[in-house]
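Field notebook, page 293. I keep forgetting to write these up properly, so this time I am using the form the group agreed on. The chain and the ligand, guanine, are recorded exactly as supplied. Prediction of the bound pose follows.
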Amino acid sequence: MAAKIISGTEIAKEIREELKKEVENLKEKYGITPGLVTILVGENPASISYVTAKQKTSKNLGFYSIQDNQPEDISEENLLELIDKYNNDPSIHGILVQLPLPKHINESKILYAIDPKKDVDGFHPVNIGKLMIGEADYLPCTPAGIQQMLIRTGVKTEGAEVVVVGRSNIVGKPIANILIQKQEGANATVTVCHTRTKNMEEHTRRADILIVAAGKPKAVTADMVKEGAVVIDVGVNRIGKTESGKAKLCGDVDFEAVKEKAGAITPVPGGVGPMTITMLMMNTVKAAKNAGE
Ligand code: GUN
């Protein structure tokens, strides 16, 4: 039987409706308008498309939002000064520096400079540390989106065998940490596979929930998936252009074959992507609320 398709687009829409009401309430009752700045360095086409989507969504939700574009050759010092400016700007509750940054800039140094209270990406070591001990203020957006998708689709994580393919700081490591927490929507048994894992398919075939963030098209094929498994595809691979000139995307999972075997699967596009942006909005609303307390 073909898998249920988990629509990130639909779930994200539902959450955005909830957020919109929350923003109205914050404005009316407390006079607070959530403020978000997205900083883009250079002109990487994928990064431009991500920040454009983030800006559009934040405006739709009624945020005060700024797109701050900086040239590719901005110095590290000037970028740090810019972050400092927004750290001290009370109308800004969330600061997002789009990654990757040009080679001459030390990415860690930039991420460390963001005030953890305004770190709506959840990348600052303070926030990563809090996540590890189950006291997160801001979860990184992609893993938070995955967890919400599982919760809102009614996928039980408690006691489930979760296998994560990929160990990046943005997805693999944090989603593994989120799902092992002794918390509702977690309590899973998690295995993390990566490029040095031996016999990867032996692990993936055990998964009740398989989360794939490998950064490689068709990294997961049907023979690697257990019958009835829930498959979350985090991959965004650009494989040419559509007729209208837009980037053509595919995930890390062989969707057509795996959907015949899985119990549920997320598509690309329309799966994890819209959830990531929505979680950024959720974190920004949270940051605005926290600033008002
Ligand atoms: N580049 C790819 N994903 C992300 C993300 O979630 N946040 C930021 N800031 N940059 C990214």
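OBSERVATIONS:
- The chain has a mean pLDDT of 97.
- The first strand starts at residue 4 and ends at 5.
FOLLOW-UP: compare against the apo run.
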